[in-house]
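User: Hi! Is it possible to get a structure for several chains at once, not just one? Here's what I have:
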Amino acid sequence: MTKVELQQLSKQFGEVTAVSHVSLTAPDGRITALLGPSGCGKTTILKTIAGLLTPSSGDVLFNGRSILPIPAEKRNAVMVFQNHLLFPYLSVGENVGFGLKMRGVEAAVIRQKVEEHLAMVQLPGLANRRPNELSGGQQQRVALARALIVEPTVLLLDEPLSNLDAHLREEMRQLIRSLQRALNMTTIVVTHDQEEAVLLADQIGLMFDGKLAQVGPPSDFYERPSTRQVASFFGATNFLVGEKRGNVVETAVGSLQIAPNPIADGPVQLTIRPEHVQLVPADGRLPNQLCATVQEAIYAGTHTRLRLILGSDTALTLLTSPSAAKTVGVGTAVHLHLPPDHLWPLP
Amino acid sequence: MTRIKQTLQPRTLILAAIVVGVLLPFVPLLLWSVSFRWLYPSVLPESLSLRAWQYVFSPRAEVLSALGYSTLVALLVTALSILIGLPAGRALGLYKFRGKTAVRFLILAPTIVPTLAAAMGIHVLFIRYGLVDNVLGVVLVHLIPVLPYVVLILSGVFANYNPDFEAQAQTLGASAWQRFRHVTLPTIFPALMVAGLFAFIISWSQYILTLLIGGGQVVTLPVLLFSFVSSGDNAITAALSLVFIAPALLFLLATARYLSGNQASLGGFGKL
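Assistant: Yes, the chains can be modeled jointly so their relative placement is included. Here is the combined structure:
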């Protein structure tokens, strides 16, 4: 089992800096997701771990030992590319057995292991097919089997779900999760989809412009984002500018109580997720009660999104059940409650 | 069923037309080679004889040695041109670098500039370096007309080549040689066959360059053939022509399937 550490990793392509001083630890036997918009350098990091790229500076450690002197073919860090890259001139079975053949394993052993691994990805008995006879989802699973058969020390998945339809994506995600749990294999997934990262990973590293913005378990990105950019990437839309003093923040719409937190006093932005803003009766018993006017109601099936205006120009969004939303029409005044536990200050 | 028939029939007709068009010109050659007397008004030879064939295969005709020289030169040229053309084609097809257009133009120049003009100058150099009157010199000078075609075909296949397949093989544990053997080679194999076919046939049909650099010491089949054409013996010339064409035709038939079909290495040829 392998712990992967990136230490101050940087990569320049000519004048362009793709990755800048990234330090991250991917714990042993867990899934770590590198998340970020396209072009943020996450695939560059994956290729650097695989050995396909050499970093400009910094180090990559497997279990505390630098692997930079080891060529890619000896690292046993297997990458599964986004477009699965099955060799078209080989059968499905030959594709899966490719890594073992390169290691000089006996043909009979390869055949048996290929069958085992095809069964593992729920494609038993397809060894003699050609890759182009399979569907996109099946090809992706063959690519996964081809990587798993060499028992990689680290499994590197580049956008494993992005080429699949929505229902196949769910299936593939469950397969990756269950195989990873069963094999207890250190896995690093690159994705641009925050939902995918949250559902798949134990730990997320969010990147913007080649820099790591925040690392932590998925819930951190919802409950305690480090910057406004991080919060926005995870769908936060409510930001209130204010001055923090202890557990109180003075804002344009009044002073708000917040839960104790480590952010220094001074100017902050308060954020609260739309699903945490509550509609309440006007009784004044709860803290952080505000008056607002409904500006727009957007019905989205499972919920309704209300856009509200507070005071002169402060906008807030809240999610509520469609039945609750029926009682408040556009233009009506409502009372809001912002639970202190869910108000999070951003520096 | 009927639909298959409908699409098949015009194809069969076209194929038949191609076969007839290619093979028909050989009929008079065959007849000439076995004729003894064939004078103007008669449609077929008046009497037949195997004299020409006996002569062609007799030791004093030196046909067998010419066949040997031609084969040796053509095979060496094919091997060398692929050895040079493979990295050149990969660089031109796959990578961006400064002066790429200029390099491409220089490589294609021999197809525009008359080879003889260049060969005259090269002749002087070859004399200085002892490369005239021997097989090595002939092989080197044949590379001039051969290389543009080989590089062009191979750069074409590398333009559509995805190097990520090699990266994938590498992370699966393939060494540099294994990546070439198990990824690059099978992917470009059809194009390699076509490039080899072009190299072989172009070298096989060189006359002036062989004569100039070989200086009469390296007598390949075309050199021998031209001396018989000027001698005016139609039967022997015809027999010799057939010997000349046969290996090239065999080579073409062996590699023809790479010229067409889904794996076609030459864009636009489509499926026959």
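The longest strand of chain B covers residues 35-37. The radius of gyration of chain B is 23 Å.

User: Great, thank you!
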